[in-house]
Design a protein that fits this description.
Layout: E1 2-7, E2 12-20, E3 26-35, H1 42-60, E4 64-68, H2 76-95, E5 100-103, H3 105-113, H4 120-130, H5 140-187, H6 199-210
Parallel strand pairs: 1-4, 4-5
Antiparallel strand pairs: 1-2, 2-3
Length: 211
């Protein structure tokens, strides 16, 4: 599986492609940062992000796009810009019918370091080690994009098994409800041979026996 990992942002958007092999084997294909000038208009910056991401999608043809889920930050303006950049990436992937998965920062940290509270330096160190890179990826946005791709590769099998188990449980529940409905329906059926006897017909039958 080939994953395009994206650490969204307007000023710097980390972007990386990682291939997953058997087990937990991972290999870095490409990593970079898409930058937009802070003094440009918002629409222009989003267009530059879109153009850059679409070029990566066309060049590397990933199977899935993994994006960091945006959370509220102290700086509302920064959070909004990050969310807008993430939306542009998701739209570009959707136009190519690519699945888009969102991972929280703690999920990513836990996947690559074993701790959901790891700092950026620890994430960078582990990404460098896991991918056997000759030097640490810089800036941190690039390392985060690689970490996102690794996170998805390692979480996808678990997620798929959970989805299969949920689907199987839903099928069993549906079959069980159908059996209950059939049993209830069967229990209300009248005996074969005609309609149920009325009180008058039972009384007439009693007189006939006694006569």
């Amino acid at each position: 599986m080939r994953v395009l990992g994206v650490d969204p942002g307007l000023t710097r958007l980390g972007i990386a492609v990682v291939d997953g092999g058997l087990g937990r084997a991972v290999r870095a294909v490409a990593v970079d940062v898409i930058r937009t000038p802070a003094d440009d208009e918002l629409a222009t910056r989003l267009l530059k992000v879109a153009d850059g991401v679409e070029a990566w999608l066309d060049r590397h043809r990933p199977d899935v796009v993994a994006i960091e889920r945006v959370f509220s930050q102290h700086n509302v303006r920064t959070a909004m810009g990050t969310a807008q950049a993430a939306g542009v990436v998701a739209l570009a992937a959707a136009r190519r019918d690519l699945p888009v998965m969102f991972h929280t920062p703690s999920e990513v940290k836990a996947a690559v370091t074993g701790s959901g509270r790891a700092d950026k330096a620890q994430v960078t160190t582990m990404v460098t080690r896991l991918l056997r890179l000759t030097e640490a990826p810089k800036p941190a946005d690039a390392a985060d994009a690689l970490a996102l791709a690794i996170c998805h590769l390692w979480r996808a099998p678990v997620r798929n098994r959970m989805a299969e188990a949920e689907a199987r449980a839903a099928e069993l529940a549906k079959a069980h409800r159908a059996r209950l409905a059939e049993a209830a329906k069967s229990g209300g059926r009248r005996p074969a041979g005609g309609a149920a006897a009325t009180p008058n017909s039972r009384a007439a039958g009693s007189r006939a026996v006694g006569s």
